[in-house]
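ESCALATION

Customer reports they have been waiting on this structure for their group meeting. Please prioritize. Original submission:
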Amino acid sequence: MTTNVFTVHHDGVTIPVSRGGEGPPLVLSPGLTSTQAELHELIELLRRDFDVLTFDLRGHGLSSAGDRYSFEALLGDFAAVMAEVGRLGLPSAPVLAGHSFGADLIVHYAADFPDAFSELVVIDGANPVPAPFITAADLPELRGMWEDLATWQQTIKGTPRQVLLTAQEILDLNLELDVLRSGIDLEIDVVGSGILDQYRKIDRPIHLIMSTSMAGDSGEGRAPRHNRLWRAGIERLTREQPQIRTTWLDATHALVVTHAPDIAQIIRGAQTRATSQT
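Update from on-call: job pushed to the front of the queue and completed.
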């Protein structure tokens, strides 16, 4: 299957966008510390039914490093990609799909640009959890995990799977995302609307694909708390927005890799339903 590549330049960052497949357009955003190379199986499966456009976040994969890593910066990159997609003369507005951090990007973008997409597919992210995931008790384990990741990344530097962010930059982005999702900043004792308010601005179809064991299936440590928060957040969202369709997969947060065929089939089915209703 032929793949074309075009390049987006934004905020000093070079972002190659890959395009391939046939069918209605779909833009796929990987998550933090993930790349389109890691999502190869899912992308190839989706290309059987969609004209798939995908890219890497700044400092990830084929995209160049940035001089700053914040949600605002990465959202700006996504908006720049979408602006270029809008110049392609696509036959219809694209489906937007995103995993983890990428899911939060597409929801925030959709809230600001309600006519630029046809449907959202939120994959294990953009969850209005009722309390922050990361507490003081979690920091030592998370710092260690991301330091190990940063060390391992040195072995694949220069490949399409590379992640150039430091452990501290990854932690800072996760802390920022925690506040954006829950609307709660424990450090400064502020309660806001969080991502739930972004969902309220969206009137297009939304399909959630969520993992049952987001933090893993261990019954020990912090995993049970995180898994309870994850489910509570989705229950909170669907109570307020009952029109949102939700599919749970018996998987961890790595579902885009471990359950790629299931996710592709769910997205294909969602598009089939949407088409039949128009």
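Sent to customer with the following note: Strands lie at 3-10, 13-20, 25-29, 51-54, 95-99, 119-123, 184-185, 190-191, 206-211, 245-249.
Escalation resolved.
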